[in-house]
Predict the 3D structure of the following.
Amino acid sequence: MTDQQRSVAIHVPVLARVEGEAALDLRIENGDIAELRLRIFEPPRFFEKFLEGHHYTEIPDMVARICGICPVAYQVTAAQALEKLFNVELSPWARAMRRVFYCGEWIQSHSLHIHLLAAPDFFGCNNAIELARIAPEEVRRGLRIQALGNELMDLFGARSVHPVGVRIGGFHGAPSLARIQKMRQKLRAALPEAEALIRWAASIPMPQDDQRFVSVATRHQTDYAIETGAIGTSDGLCIEADEFDAHFAEQHLPHSTALFSTYHGQPYLVGPLARLNLNHGRLPERINTLLAEAGFVLPSRNLFHSLLARAVEILLALHEALRLLEGYRVPDSPWVAATPRAGVAVGCTEAPRGLLWHRYEMDDDGRVVNARIVPPTSQNQGRIEEDLRLSLLNFGLGHADDALRLHCEKVIRNYDPCISCATHFLRMNVERG
Amino acid sequence: MSPVHILGIGSPLGDDQAGWLVVDALLAAGVQASGGIAIEKLDRPGANLIPLLGDAAWVILIDAIQSNSPVGSIRHWGAEDWPAYGRGLSSHGFGVLDSLSLARELGSLPPRLDLYGIEIGPVSPGEPVRVEIQAAAQQLARRIAGDLNASSEQA
């Protein structure tokens, strides 16, 4: 039997360096993929159900508990949705500081993923500790950038893990001018570090892969969309958040506790590379120059560019935070009052891992009747399976099981899946029969 | 920079509060956060633990452990020979020993490190802390307070 004809089964029982629990089953028969399933078996968390009956004032703090890495995304999306329903107009200060707060989360989450989770794959290392032996300065730099992101979150959220700063109408408090001035110095000092990170990320040899997929991300008329924007796709759709259900569908498949999302019946990509593909025209000139120097051409159809995309978004977030904190003044009030009303509240923002969509049906007293939360990882789940299939065929199914397993893990980690958020993540089982 | 940094690690899940209880017991016994001592509770800090390690001359770190020893038993390690470790509950699977190992690789461990583990049973949300854990926390707090006193007398 030739290598191409052999039948193999690979099972990755637990995938390391992702958040949550899942497994991958791969069965190869007669040199072709007979079965490939990403099985998310982490138990459902029923978070939407917990929210029912709770007052709108409790929602930002409750949804922050969905994720220890991207709580700001959940808070800001919920607040955006409810503020729209309650006709709350944020002050210019609060609008700007929501974006700064969100920048902190992008910086810490992206740096964590690049240095501790993804980069070891590309240096033949099993983990960040091994990577630190061969690239200590780069890992130290990554930890410094991550810590700065946490500090920025702490400024507005009182703590970086499960922050408590956001309220409907703005923030509970405003940082002092002295704290902001100190932060601006640190952000300015981090700019050359983030530029060096982009050069380093661009120098890492990546597998060549070319896949067709639809990128989906929020878009804004003037800014690189983060905390607000319409939903755009790479095939030309542009819709408001409340039109989501007309174009996107979620369905349950037996092998996963997360819902699979489709756009017009097809898998699609959300996250840093999807955002860059759609919104690179909104990057500051300095970043576009750096990307041109690094030879990074956008849009990209190679998901292995996701690590570099995260590095780019770190620099963008530093630039944005610095810009928005220029001329900072402590406001008379960090929030405006809200009056609840019954209706349906819908909102969407760009979590570090991609589009995050919330829908709340509220009663007259401002209590949640029902809630629906569509996180990035469940939206990417179908795309990950599609990517694995295409990427494995491109890689070659004749490789040894260990090489196949590592390749699959690299592909999956490109998406930085957060299974606890989606549980609605990897054990891998490969069968060659 | 505080010469001594005491870090109680835990979560709200039943016995997993062990590290926090030791901090509470130290504060109740009069060990004060002052110029020389920083003392704080951390909730599953992941890699955020690393910057806190390089900032002190002596770090005392207390966490709950599960090693099939009797519930309430106390284990101690220095800057080496940490226990074998399975996946923890930390975000993205990056736990306390991962952070310590990475800090060691980067030369960021403090000159003195005391790592204490309190053996706990199964944890679940809403469960009260077992009496064995409360007693172990008190006992460990007395031991750490004694170490701090001995250290200040030597100084």
